[in-house]
Amino acid sequence: MKSTVDAKAFSAALDKVSKVLRKSAVPIIEQICVRFEGDRCICTATDLITWVSVELPAQGDVFSFAFTKTRDVVKVSRFFDGNLVVELRELGGAKKESPRITLTCGYRAVEYDAYPGDDYPPAPQTADEDVFTTNAGILLKRVSRVCYAVDKKASWTDTYPIQACIQFNGTQVYALDGARAACDTDETLVFPRAFLSPFESVRYLKLFGDRLVSFRFGKRNLCVADGQVSIICPLVGKEPFHMQSAVPSQITEEFYVQPKAFLAELRYMKECVAKIKLPYVDFINGEMSMADSIQKCRTAVALEGESKTPILFNLHHMIDAIRQFEGEERVRVKVSSCIAPLIIDAEGRSDYALVCPIKPKKADAA
Question: For the whole model, what pTM was predicted?
Answer without folding.
Answer: 0.87
